[in-house]
Structures are given as structure tokens and as C-alpha cells.
Specification:
The protein is of the alpha/beta class. 46% of the residues lie in helices and 14% in strands. It has a domain of 195 residues: Lambda Exonuclease, Chain A. The strands form two sheets. It has a five-stranded mixed beta sheet with strand order 2-5-6-7-8. The chain binds iron/sulfur cluster (SF4).
Length: 317
Amino acid sequence: MLDLANARADQARHEQRDAAAIAAAIPIPIRLPARLDGQPLTHLSASSYSKWLACPEAWRRHYILGERSAPSGAMFLGSRVDDTLCLYYQQLIDTGETLTPTQLQDHYRDRWSAQIAYEHDRHGISWNDALPEQAAFNLGLRALETALNRIVPHLGHPLAVQRKLELTLAPALEWTVQCFPDLETTSSEGEPVQRVVDFKVKDVLISAEQARSDIQASIYLAARWLEGQPATEFLFAQIAKPGPRRQQIGHTIVPTARSTGQLRGTLARLALAASQINACHHTYGPDRPWGFADPTGWRCSPRYCPHWTTCPGGRGL
Ligand code: SF4
């Protein structure tokens, strides 16, 4: 056991050197820019990297200026289903006991009410006609039932729930990339297969092809690789909402993996993003736009961008 631990530590040190070498090839900043309230930005994440790629101006407004908006009803629903499935696995890890469907439904209901109150004290929740609150609540109950019956039996033995995984590109940096995987598992029979699992409740499911280049999977697998405990695969454990595309609730598990070259490429992407963020801050400062999204993209629209009405790249000047 000790040998295994030493081997992993050696491997982790080796991987860290890899990361440092990648970082050294790109002028990576020691620290990220400060927020407008003076607090330092101490980490990036998969979602912040995605926002950066989609629109640097949206990134500046969100992370530097702190412009926040109400979560959509779909986001709120997905988070409550996540919460409940994570509780299911945490209980299993802590006590070896499986919560009953009724216990999970009670937790879901309590958590839903508590988070509604929390969000109402902040920015509210942006429900829409296609998914009003009561319909979303009921859909969450059905999503949980589907997950328990159709998805959970295929995920393997749970090792950790929402563990904080922190990826650093070089020892001296004052920032990291943080990940909180919903679930980490290992197969319970045969050759051990280490997995990272992300639960999703979606209208449009992530396909196998999209999964192959999905940045969340890349970053989470890179973080596992760097800590010396590489995961074999990342699973998108998805519940498909009923709607115009399908009559009934559906489900699918989409696995994806990354080669060592792809993991190294992910680190290079993160290093370059940090470098570009600092370059924008240096060139334009915190108060001027940093670069607008492609105006033909779906994100740059009043429906999907919370900054659209005040953004020169959105509604205009
Ligand atoms: S309106 Fe378009 S350009 Fe402006 S922040 Fe939103 S996505 Fe970016």
C-alpha cells in the first residue's frame, strides 16, 4: 500500500514537472487580475474558461465587475437534482446505507424550498413559460426516479462526492483551476476503472462527438492526472427532459476519455487563457470592453446573455 502511495506521489511530481514545462512555454501570469472590489481572483474553473472562450467581455463583466443575474429555471432544476443525487452517494459512502426513494424525495423538496428562498434574497430565478416553477419541481422528481433506476446502477462504486480538485500549472502561481466533480467512482468488478461523473438534466443531450472535445471533461480529467490518480473516463450521466424533441423523459450515459497529449493540451489552453486574461486587463483595464462574442452565435442574444441590454456588442451604444 505504501509502495502504491509512493508511486503515486512520484507520478504526481512527474506530472507537476510536465505542467511546469507547459506553463514555461507560455508567458503564464503569477496572479490573475483583481476584481473591482479589490479581492484577488484566485482560481479559474471549467465554467469560467468556457465563458472566456465564448465572450471575453461577458467574462470581464462577470468575474471582474461582479455583474450577476438570476439563474434560469433549468439551471436551478439541474442543481437540485445534482444536490439530491450527491446526497444519495454521500450517505452511501459515509454509512454504507442506501436512502429510499421517499427519503430522497423529502430531501429534494426541502432543498428546493431552501434554495428558492436563498435565490429570492439574491437575484431571483428566471422561470419561463416553457418551464414554470411547479412543472420544473415535478420534472425534478421524475428525473430523480429515472436516475436511480436507470443511471445509478451503471456508475460503479462511489469514492468521493463533490471533492475539491485543484489543478496548478506551476508551483509559484497564486491561482489554481478548481473542479468539483459530482461523483468519482471505481468499477466494482473486473479491472478497476476509475471514473469521474457529472450529472446533467438537459433538453439537448451531449453527444459522444461533443463529449470528445468537451472542456469540462478535459479539465476534470487533467486535474485527476496531475494529482497522480488518473481517471480512465469521464461520464456524462444525463437525464433528457421531455418536450418538443421527445415525449417521455429519457436518459443516457456518455463516456469520454483523453490521451496524455490531450491532457497536456488542456493545460496549455488554461495557461494561455490566463495569459490572455491578464493581457486584456493590462491593455484595456477593468472598465473597458475586452472583446465581443460572435454576434451570430446564440449566446450573444437578449435571451441568453444577461449583459446584452448594456453591452455595446449586444444591443449597441
Ligand atoms: S451581449 Fe454579446 S458581446 Fe456583449 S457580453 Fe453578451 S455575449 Fe458578450
